[in-house]
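User: Run a structure prediction on this.
Assistant: Running it now.
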Amino acid sequence: QLYLGESGGGLVQPGGSLRLSCAASGRTFNMYHMGWFRRGPGLEREFVAAITWNGDNTAVADSVKGRFTISRDNASETVYQQMNSLEFEGAAVYYCAADWAGDGTSWYPHDGGQYDYWGQGTQVTVSS
């Protein structure tokens, strides 16, 4: 079992920034690709960003490209998402997720079904 705990959510004004963190424990963190997803009010869960197990590759949704950045620190078993220029559409519960990389299969970061573990989420509210 890999346990994931998100933090860093909160209230931000449009145009503001937040940094989300996701701390992992329980299994070997650096054997997992990591992703961020979000679910806005009344909306389906959507992919936001992902990073490979070694940090060499990232994927970012077009809707947040240039504003959101994903990174990871395997030593501290944490993945981050820096969110800049937040818009009203960015209000959502943000979830981190882990996709086992040890099986050597292709990486499909956008596919939530590929992920094995999920956190409980952290709320981001964008309001003026």
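The chain has no helices and eleven strands.
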